[in-house]
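Lines hold sequence, tokenised fold; shown next:
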Amino acid sequence: MTNHPSDPSSGSFRYAPRRSLLSARRLALMASVAAVLAVTVYGFGPSSGPLDIFSSPAYAQVNNAVSKVAQPTGFADIVERVKPSVISVKVTMRGKSTDTSNSADDDSSTQPGSPMERFFHQFGGPDGLPPGMRGHHGGHGVMMGQGSGFFISSDGYAVTNNHVVDGADKVEVTTDDGKTYTAKVIGTDARTDVALIKVEGGADFPFAKLAAGKPRVGDWVLAVGNPFGLGGTVTAGIVSASGRDIGNGPYDDFIQIDAPVNKGNSGGPAFDMQGEVVGVNTAIYSPSGGSVGIAFSIPAPTVKTVIAQLKDKGSVSRGWIGVQIQPVTQDIANSLGLKKAEGALVAEPQANGPAAKAGIEAGDIITAVNGQSVKDARELARTIGGLEPGNAVKLDVLHQGKDAVFNLTLAELPNAHLAQADSGAASPTQGVDVPKLGMTIAPASSVAGDGKTGVVVTNVDPNGAAAEHGFKEGDVILEVAGKSVVNPAEVRDAIKSARADNKNNVLIRLRSGEGSHYVAVPLGNG
């Protein structure tokens, strides 16, 4: 007989004792069960048949103990309760180009060149699509698109995204039970990408409740929606971050979640473990066009504020004080001698705006509104924008280096930006070098198209400090260290004075294509 290593009938082989393939860790984890089973095996005497440990009392004891161990909790109960409130939204647009520039709202967040359009261009458009590809053609000049939404009241009011229904001629919704209804757009808000619609022809709809506050980072969330037309899809994840700014505008305050969100999820809810809506899914980071675990949701408190106005009057009015603001960076704080980099730096008050009329000036820092401190420029914009026009407000301001209080009445935020950059190209001229900063400058009055005030940047060394901090040819320097300048000598004197005062940075106010803003530039040695 041929001997085989696996043949135990052969007498030609000696078998070494087999070593367990289980690691010490696995053995330790199984020790308690093994000990009980050992009692089962060795607790019986010889038997004429196979030993059946599975019918023994000891095995029943082990099995009962295992069944009592806590099992992972699923989301089925929550899903069963909240999913009926979620709807699929289908829109039809006739005779319109797929380009989002044909939006009915001139202030659309996806206008070409807008911050949101640039974000979508880089990271994927609404629902992960490129700009202008929200839906697909239905033929004969008809464009069709889809998204998600959810009921907020039993009489058919529902929330979705502005970019889902903006410009739609017809809106239809499909409920969780498969019924289809026509819906009317009540109002939209492009700045927050929130829309309110009203479903017609039905009653007693199941609805969801908007949460009163924001979730914590690490909390579970469930995204329910209509990805790729697959209505009623549920995905789970956690809150990855809060307060995200994705470049949509000054009101950005997105919740970041990692629950898979794809094309068609836009406008759908993100639920917490209490079954309340903590956010409305609106955008994804998507180099590939599909979910990579980075999605952005509009916080429920923001949605509440917006839909209240949309339901009341079909539009949103926001308070406005008429200032161009920017964050107070640590470098800027050091330049101004501040202990903390907090508040909003006024780059330029708009002429005849409430702030200018009250006496607020460029270089002032707004630190509080009605006694509530503001952390940064975005928080100031959200705070003021959340107040009704006509309200009186009290601003705490660091004005000319001293604490001051300004009282003013809010105006209404205009629909479009009033200030436009001068498109005239500067004529080449020879400038004066600014030591250590890597740029040359000349009086603005000597350069065509740059006005009569300030000093224009005529050349920037790409390896210098000025280039590193965003200076560009054609920028106009308006102030250096809080002093207005009209010629290169005044710029150099102000920098020299700052060095003499042992300052590490000098604060420069620039006018560029994006308006006025401040830049803290390191002085270096000598």
Summary: The first helix runs from residue 24 to 42. The chain is about 20% helix and 30% strand.
